[in-house]
Amino acid sequence: MPMVQAKCENCGGILAVDSDLKAANCPFCGTAYIVQDSINYYNSTVNIDNSSIANVRANVVNINDERTSEGRLKAADAYMQINKFDEALREYKEVTRLTPHNHRGWQGMIEAFTCRFGRRIRTRDDIRTLEDYGRSVRTFSSDEQSKDILQKLADYIEAQRVQNRQEKAYLVQQIEQTQGEVNALRAREKELNRQLNAVNKSVDRKSQKIAASENSQSAKEATTFLALFFFISGLMLLMISVMIKVLLWFGIVSIVLSILVVSSGFRKKRNVKKLARREDNISNKSENLRRELIKQESRLSSLKRTLETYE
Predict the structure, then answer these.
(1) 146: closest CA among 159, 137, 154?
(2) d(Cα 126, Cα 134) in Å, to the nearest integer?
(3) CA-based torsion, 156, 157, 161, 162: positive or negative
(4) Three-state DSSP state, 102
(5) b/e 25-62 (16+ beta carbons within 10 angstroms → b)
(6) In this structure, what are the phi and psi dihedrals at residue 4, rounded to the nearest 5 degrees?
(7) Could you tell me which residues come within 8 angstroms of residue 99 by beta carbon, excluding any fewer than 6 positions away?
(8) Please, which contacts does 61-66 make with residues 24 or more away whose CB atoms are closer than 8 Å?
């Protein structure tokens, strides 16, 4: 790792650099530089005295503000060497502002904006921006100077558009599929709501009947009277049947009737509980389906927003 002396072309600072590196940043002003260019610059200005260098360092801010487009081009190229594309793009933009006729600034804009043609571009605005850069290169350069970069740009834009069309087709397919799932979920939700309403009505109807029956004092007394009547009658007939076996069957029937009267109320309540469980089951299904519907609708909206970003 041989260390040699170099000089920053921006602030004039004396540097100790590794000659094996391609590019680095100046520790004094932070400007990116190409190592070999800085070494050559040092060798060509080695006779500058220390006091002059100190003055340059002290006034680095002023010098930095007054850099020429050529200096910015070198800084941008150095940033490109170390893959700092945003910084390089900023320098190239300043070059095109200072000297819009300099085709190298526009070419650098293309390479920095596309990250040396490795960036994925989807939006219409980005592609139009690149096309504008290409027109500027064509305007301010000769055919030989711009032939290679313009061909790369044309191939790059076409490749991006092909990929965009493929991704858009896939997104449209996903949107259609998701829309179908959403429609099916909505139909299922509608059917569950219909079932739930039917069960609710049935529960309400049976609950009202039971409530009316239980709240009716006369109904309670009649039920109790019937149950006791049939039960006592059955016992009496059974007792009499010891002597008169013919009445045995009448006794059994009376006892059965008393049991039926008592169990009738229990059956009604049991049916209502069964309907209530069914109601809860349908409600749970409806809630789960609603959550899934919200999830699918959110995915559908996201896909549509993504599709809108494409060229």
Answers:
(1) 137
(2) 12
(3) negative
(4) coil
(5) bbebbebbbbbebbbebbeeeeeeeeeebeebbeebee
(6) -130, 165
(7) 69, 105
(8) 63/10, 63/11, 63/12, 64/10, 64/11, 64/29, 64/31
Q: Please state whether 2 falls in left (phi above 0), alpha (psi between -120 and 50) or beta.
A: beta
- Mean pLDDT computed over 3-7: 80
Measured between alpha carbons, how far is 261 from 284 in angstroms, rounded to an integer?
36
Phi-psi region of 116 (alpha: psi -120 to 50; beta: other; left: phi over 0): left
CB burial of 124-146 (b: ≥16 within 10 Å; e: otherwise) equals eebbeebeebbebbbebbeeeeb
Cα(204)–Cα(190) distance, integer angstroms: 21
Q: What phi and psi values does residue 169 have, to the nearest 5 degrees?
A: -60, -40
Predicted local confidence at residue 71, as pLDDT: 87
Cα gap 10→181, rounded to integer Å: 62
pLDDT at 59 > cutoff 60: no
pLDDT digits (tens, 9 = 90+) for 190-201: 888 888 788 778
Residue with tokens 């979920």: 185
